[in-house]
Amino acid sequence: MAYDEKLAGRVRLLLKGRKGISEKRMFGGLAFMLGDRMCCGVLKEDFVARIGPEAYESALDEPHVRPMDFTGRPIKGYVYVGPESTRNDRSLKAWIDRSIAFTVSLAKKPARKTR
């Protein structure tokens, strides 16, 4: 099992109706994309939140949150949120909303040049 299907289903329901959301298998889990950028995801039993570098350190002070480090090096701006902090829809939605807010704040990527 690469990711918790039940958690992924809950994320899908909370994202239902939001424009620009798609799913993509990434890093052995499931990423939820907003446009062409990852905003959150599910890896094993953890929720992956993209919260940005400014919110990173303070997020690590929250219960059951740890650095995202599937490569052996933490990826600043992304955190794993353990199941204890996403048990109810209210807490999961709060993490989803934080992830979306950060992703929306990013400047649009420039169009890729074609050859």
Secondary structure: elements and pairs:
Layout: H1 5-15, E1 21-26, E2 29-34, E3 37-43, E4 46-50, H2 53-60, E5 65-67, E6 78-81, H3 89-105
Can you characterise this structure?
The chain is α+β, with helices and mostly antiparallel strands and 115 residues long. The protein has helices at 5-15, 53-60, 89-105; strands spanning 21-26, 29-34, 37-43, 46-50, 65-67, 78-81. β2 (29-34) and β3 (37-43) form a beta hairpin. α1 (5-15) crosses α3 (89-105). The longest helix is centred in the C-terminal third of the chain and has 17 residues, at 89-105. The radius of gyration is 14 Å and the shape is globular.
Dominant shape: globular
What share of the residues does DSSP label as strand, in percent?
Answer: 25-35%
Query: What is the structural class?
Result: alpha+beta
Instruction: Please trace the helix and strand order, writing H or E for each element.
Output: HEEEEHEEH
User: Order of strands across the widest beta sheet?
Assistant: 1-2-3-4-6-5
